[in-house]
Amino acid sequence: MKTLYWKTRPLRLDAAGHRRLHWPGVALNLTLALAIAGSLFGGLVLAGLDGNFAELWSLADALLPIIATWALALAAVGLGYRLTVPMDRLPGGAGEPPAQRTTRWFHWANLRAVLFGGLAAATVLLAAYTLSGWQGRRAWEAYRAEAVRRGVEFDLEKLMPPPVPDAENFAATPLLRQHQGGNPEFLSYRATNRSSEPFFPVSMTAADVKEPLPRVEWLRGERLSLSSLQTYYRSSTNFPAWPAPRTPAEDVLKALSRFDAELSEIHTAATRPQVRFNTQITEDGISTLLPHMAAIKSLGSVVGLRSVALLAVGRTDDAFADAKLAFRLSETVRGEAILISHLVRLAMHSIALRTVWEGLADHRWSDAQLAHWQADLAKRNFAAELRHAMAGERAFGNRAIEFIRRRPEMLAMLGDPEGASMSTPQPALKGVPAGWLWQEQISYNRIFDDYIAAALPSHAGRLDAALMQARSDAMLRDIERNKRPAKAVLQHRVLSHLLLPALHKTMHRVCQAQAFTQLAIAACALERHRLARGSYPESLAALAPEFGPLPPDPMSGQPFRYERTADGRFRLWSLGWNGRDDGGTVALREPSKRELDFEQGDWVWPVPAQ
Q: Is residue 27 situated within a structural domain?
């Protein structure tokens, strides 16, 4: 056995007393190194896959380069060790034991050999690290060049709205200046209050009332309960009130008079033709603060409520002005290449649309006002806005990955973006190979191409819900298939799973907003027909050309479904997400059957309860 041991050494002494390679010994040592590295890394990955050999085999192509690199490093340790061993301690040409053997561990010859072997291994690993980075960078540059030719924009600043003069900028009004991350007023507020909580220029909520603010869902046909709001505000000492109760609408208007100065300023600012919030985009992108989102949404909620109350007291022109302001507020974040801005915009648009619906329910709007809503709502193209927002989301993701490539010790921040600015760096992550991060960026963008960009609505009028659902399901399957840490690392899916947006949720909201906006246009046309003829028409075709044109159902590309009911009202609906005509049936979620299920049934223009 001892003789066999010496015969398998990769270096021997030749007849002239010089070192020479013994190729069978080299091959045997390399095989042994491969076995050790394969067992180690294969075992680690297999443990991460809960012992699933089938999944391990599918990862062989990604795992083999790692095993080969570390096997070469181990082999280099052995070969480098023996390159510095004294000649008289090498086996002879026939593999016989050396004349002298070192029996002490801490002999200077052993120490020198160990250091040289470690240097040889480090050289192999450094070479592999450098080669991986070079290959990854070249692959990314090739992908980026091809993507730019397709029109993909990676520069986030180019996607954001350009600066505008203060005199023309809605957002430059003093009330909103401290709600913008790039303004000194915001920085001063943060330095003084040391709080990350959002703050609002106005708020519907009474801090001294324990009960929550009454909430309703107008898409289910629920009207704003002004009597409940009257009780809510009269129980608060933070809102003004009449000495004695008046009508619910009058008491709500009195409470909201607390914000007369703020809303008057916003009305004046709304006459400015442009808007651009001063957003300070951070180095990593994802920790960018957007305080203006909460500010604008709070203003839209108060303006929308006041508009409904004004309708109830018969001040239709004032209600019309507030409703227009609610839509203007929702428009202020339209050009921002930020997905959360787009989602907030959709929520604010729904609040503004509710004011139109409330006026229609009580037949408060005049023909001229209804014609205005038709023309104004026809300008909304949420599909185009979504494409812009998703382009920004992609640029944000690339910005975050590039930041991690420069500072890999901050990798953990992606798992907790809300606390990103306070994340503790992890020095151990500095060793993350650059090549792996380049491949992660390629993977992120290819997933974006395959699942998100492929599902985005086109410039045509129809929204293909089936395609969106299919792409969303495929992306979820991809995430589920590669969610185990071992697979995510080897398949370059770690950063993708952290940064990819919720595709289904976003697409669904866009389709819903577009459908109900176009339903509102049709509802306004129907109301104009009622004002002119005394009743609703037998069919939508009777509206054109005097009260049209009517937009099609964006979920089918065909006219909306419509029927006049026996009680003198009407039913108007879109095919909805499932693309099937369910006869105007509204689906409710189990088990409470209180929440609308917008993935089933039709999307019906709400009819107020009698």
A: yes
Of 37, 17, 39, 26, residue with least CA distance to 78: 26
Report yes or no: 374 and 420 within 8 Å, Cβ to Cβ: no
The amino acid that residue 486 corresponds to is A
Q: Which amino acid is at 279?
A: T
Distance separating alpha carbons of residues 268 and 396, to the nearest angstrom: 34
Q: Look at residue 269 and tell me whether its pLDDT is greater than 90.
A: yes
Say if CB 117 and CB 81 are below 8 A apart: yes
Q: Which two tokens stand for residue 574?
A: 């879109």
Domain containing residue 454? 388-506
Question: Same structural domain for residues 130 and 234?
Answer: no
Per the structure block, which two tokens stand in for 610? 């009698």
CA dihedral 325, 328, 332, 338 (to 10 degrees): 110
Closest by CA position to 307, among listed 232, 364, 265: 364
pLDDT of residue 233: 94
> What is the three-class DSSP state of 600?
strand
* 570 φ, ψ (degrees, to nearest 5): -145, 165
Residue 246 and residue 277 in one domain? yes
10 Å CB burial of residue 607 (0-12, 13-18, 19+) is middle
Distance of CA 317 to the CA centre of its chain: 39
Same domain for 487 and 554? no
As a whole number of angstroms, the distance between CA 593 and CA 574 comes to 21
Count helices and strands (H / E) in the chain. 21, 7
In a domain, 520, yes or no: no
Say if pTM beats, i.e. exceeds, 0.85. yes
Place of tokens 């026809």: 378
List the one residue out of 423, 426, 397, 438 whose CA is nearest residue 284. 397
Burial of 5 (0-12, 13-18, 19+ CB in 10 A): exposed
Cβ–Cβ < 8 Å for 89, 109: yes
Residue 319 placed within a domain? yes
Pairing state between β 570-574 and 603-604: antiparallel
Exposed/middle/buried for residue 609 (C-beta within 10 Å: 0-12, 13-18, 19+): exposed
Which helix (H) or strand (E) segment is 551 a member of? none
Query: Helix (H, G, I), strand (E, B), or coil: what is residue 544?
Result: coil
**Cα–Cα distances in angstroms (integers) from residue 18 to residues 4, 88, 96, 264, 328, in the given order:** 21, 10, 15, 95, 87
DSSP symbol at 274: B
Is 434 contained in some domain?
yes
Predicted confidence (pLDDT) per residue in 70-105, tens digit:
888 888 887 776 777 677 667 776 767 776 665 555
Residue 203 and residue 298 in contact, taking contact as beta carbons nearer than 8 Å: yes
pLDDT digits (tens, 9 = 90+) for 420-466: 444 566 776 777 888 889 999 999 999 999 999 999 887 667 899 99
Q: How many domains does the chain have?
A: 3
Among 506, 537, 555, residue at a domain's last position: 506
**Considering the chain, what is the average pLDDT of its residues?**
87
Claim to verify: residue 404 and residue 358 sit in the same structural domain: no
Write out the two tokens for 469: 């659902």
Last residue of a domain, one of 95, 113, 148: 148
Q: Quick one: tokens of 543?
A: 């509206």
